[in-house]
Amino acid sequence: MSRLSRRALRATLEALTRKYDAAYLRTSALMFPRRYREPEDREVVGLLAASLAYGRVDLFAPAVTRVLAVLGEHPAAAIRRFVPRRDGERLAAFRYRLNGPADILAALWALRQILEASGSLKACFLAGYREEDEDIRPALTAFVDRIYRADLTAVFPTGIPSRGFTHLFPNPRRGGACKRLNLFLRWMVRPNDGLDLGLWPEVAPAKLIIPLDTHVARVARALGLTRLKSPGWRMAKAITEALKVFDPADPVRYDYALCRFGILEGAGKGPRAGRRGAGGSRS
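Below the sequence we write its predicted C-alpha cells.
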C-alpha cells in the first residue's frame, strides 16, 4: 500500500463509503433484488441480475428487466413452475451480448431443479459452505458445480451447455475473478445496510472475496491496494486481503463505493475519465 499512508487510505475508503450510499442504487444491478420483499424472490432475482450484470448498466438493466417481466411479481414461485418448452416462447426474442434465449431458459430450468432439490438457493449454497475454509471459494465452486449438475437436455439436447450459459456461471476453478458470482454473494451475505441484503447470516462476511471488475481493479491499483496487473481470482484475493487491514470482519463493504468511484468519477483513468457518467457496470 505504497500510494497512500495507511491512515490516509483508511480515510479515503471511509469517505467513499459515506459518499456512495443507497442514492446510487440506480447505477447498480442491486436495484433489482431490492424491489422484492420475500427472501426467496430476492435470492433468485439477485442471481439472475448479477449473472447478467456485465457491460454498462444502461445496457444490462433492460435485459434483466425483460427476464423479470416473464417471471412476474413472485419470481421464485414462477421459477418453480417454469417449463422450457411451454414457457420459452416468452423469451424467444431475448438477446444481450453473449446471451440468447436458450441461455436464459437453461438458467431458469437449472434454478427450478435446485429449488426443488434444496428448497432455496441459500440451502444449496450452505450445503457446500464450511466455516473452516479460508474464504468463500470452495463453497462457491460447489454451488457452481450444482448448477452444472442440472439436467439441461430440455434446452441443450446434447447436454452440453452453451458458451453463453457458461459465461453466466463461471467456475472458480478456472482462476477467473468470477466477479458477478462474488457480487451475488456480497448481496446475500453482507448485513442489510440499505445496500446489501443480509439474507445469509450463516456465512461470515470475512470469507467474501471482492467482486473484481475493471473499475475496482483500476481504483485498487491507483490506491495501492494491489500491484498485480492481471484481473483474476488472485488479484481479487489480494485486494480483499489488503482491505482486511481496515475491516477484518467485513472487507468487502468497500466494494460498492470503490466501484461507484471507478464508474462515476473514472478514478485512475486520467484527467478526462470523470466525464463518462453512469455508464459503467454492476455492484
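Residues 6-276 form one domain.
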